[in-house]
Amino acid sequence: MKKISLPLLTLATALAVVLSISSLAHAQDAQATYKSKCAMCHGVDGKKIAAHDLSSADVQKKSDADLAAIIAEGMPPRMPEFGDKLKPEEIKGLVAYIRTLK
Ligand code: HEC
């Protein structure tokens, strides 16, 4: 029993480490995408457009799907659409990043 469980445990630990590193890498990717594509309008902290403060309760109460749709399709008149510039995973990452601003 011990002979099997030790390698399994090692494998599970290794997998957990790899997964946590990759989710950390994704979070950093999303932050870099936000900084290069969004921060010039919304500010690094999301507060620069006061009426559409990304850290505000008004924006945070929207669902992930709503936020993803706004990012993909834009919001008239000034918010550009990013559906053709960003992959769905990147948009998902940006939604997760917006959640960190609250
Ligand atoms: C050219 C400036 C500009 C850029 C670039 C931009 N936005 Fe916006 N965004 C706006 C404006 C302005 C609004 C509010 C709608 C309007 O007045 O046009 C808005 C609205 C939003 C909203 C909805 C806020 C609400 O009140 O419901 C979200 C979410 C959002 N932007 C996220 C993003 C993300 C994520 C990016 C980067 C991929 C981004 N925006 C890039 C200007 C911009």
Helix content: 55-70%
Number of domains: 1
* Number of helices, counting only DSSP H or I runs of 4 residues or more: 5
The end-to-end distance, rounded to whole angstroms, is: 48 Å
User: Biggest β-sheet, characterized?
Assistant: none
Key features?
102 residues; Cytochrome Bc1 Complex, Chain D, domain 2; binds heme C
Mind sketching the topology for me?
Blueprint: H1 2-37, H2 39-42, H3 57-60, H4 64-73, H5 88-101
This protein binds heme C.
Structural account:
- The chain is built from 5 helices and no strands.
- It is mostly helical and 102 residues long.
- The protein has one domain (26-101): Cytochrome Bc1 Complex, Chain D, domain 2 (Orthogonal Bundle), CATH 1.10.760.10.
- The radius of gyration is 18 Å and the shape is elongated.
- The protein starts with a helix and ends with a helix.
- Bound molecules: heme C (HEC).
- Heme C binds at residues 37-38, 40-42, 49, 52, 54, 59, 67, 70-71, 75-80, 82, 94.
- Heme C is lined by residues 37-38, 40-42, 49, 52, 54, 59, 67, 70-71, 75-80, 82, 94.
